[in-house]
Amino acid sequence: xxxxxxxxxxxxxxxxxxxxARVDRDTRRLLDRVEPGDIAVLDEMDLDQVTADRxxxxxxxxxxxxxxxxxxxxxxPGPELLVAGGVLLLDAVTSDAxxxxxxxxxxxxxxxxxxxxxxxxxxxxxxVECLELDETAVADRLSEARNGLAGHLECFAxxxxxxxxxxxxxxxxxxxxxxPDLDLNGRQVVVVGDGPGHAEDLKKLKPFIKEYAPIxxxxxxxxxxxRRAGYRLDxxxxxxxxxxxxxxxxxxxxxxxxxxxxxxEGLDRVKELGIGAITFPCSGTPADLALLLxxxxxxxxxxxxxxxxxxxxxxxxxxxxxxxxTFLTRLKVGGAIxxxxxxxxxxxxxxxxxLMALLVLAALVVLIVAVLAAGHGSEILAPVQDLLHRxxxxxxxxxxxxxxx
Length: 405
Known about the structure:
Layout: H1 2-12, E1 17-23, H2 27-31, E2 39-42, H3 49-58, E3 62-65, H4 78-84, E4 88-92, H5 97-100, E5 106-110, E6 113-116, E7 125-132, H6 135-173, E8 188-192, H7 198-204, H8 206-212, E9 215-219, H9 222-228, E10 235-237, H10 245-248, E11 253-258, H11 267-273, E12 278-281, H12 286-296, E13 301-305, H13 311-314, H14 323-333, E14 337-339, H15 340-348, H16 353-372, H17 381-400
Parallel strand pairs: 1-2, 2-3, 3-4, 8-9, 8-13, 9-10, 10-11, 11-12, 13-14
Antiparallel strand pairs: 1-5, 4-7, 5-6, 6-7
């Protein structure tokens, strides 16, 4: 017992910060779990202000990020807020932070190294090596990001002008947009892209799909997600080389993205499988092509799942060539487009089935009471009418309450 106390005392004198590790790749879930003094281990490229504010409010002692907290794409304010608030910020140098740091374990951080905080080991166990971002390092990276932002905007402006010059007829008038056998005019359309979270977005749309039976367009691996979810796949926009034969040989029509000169990768596979396909020359992404096709073929509403067009996507250096097309495509489609999350939110606010069942039950009660009271005069109806009136007021208030579900 005395030996254990001695070891505990020695461990408290070790340099650095000690705390309980909270480990989760899902940042939203992690933010709900962190407590004062914890060490948050997350995976958040370009750590944003909202996340930083939540971490500060939770009182975390340190943040270990498996992705660059400042990638240089744009000057994100999150890291600056954390460091100014006294939170130790580290970017993991190795890629095994989530494998090495166990959720709920006690860890110690010193000089950019995460150690296992164990009393029974004389030699400290190194878990992850990191790069500590102090105020100077954060300021330098943000300065570089601001300089890179100017170059990014210049590149974007030049790309936008080039896209308008070469493809304005496609964008504005739909010249060159394929005309599939599928009739999209006046229909609701769901475009399932291959972006992050496309399967989760598709799950959110289950009530919408059940009610409207929309046209389902799969983009890239989004076509597989549609089939896995058990929905009918109507149209595919993808390189055939990237999809399995069972998807391509189904009943869905196939649109193959092509270069402006007409070359389309994957046509050899189309011939090999003996299926039909239409090429779509455009410099945009496959998701852009799907949106333009749905819009110019008269879709009444276009719901996107896994096809993000966020600020982070805009500043992604890997998408510099396609960003102008994505930006102008979204402007063209305009008010006809909605994100899956927005549609799911609207459906959560609809009148729930339980209340509808209650209304039907109330109607049946009225009918039964009327039959029973037929030979007993109005004295039996008065209290029943009062009760039904109260029930009616309650139902109306519940339905009118924001976010009723």
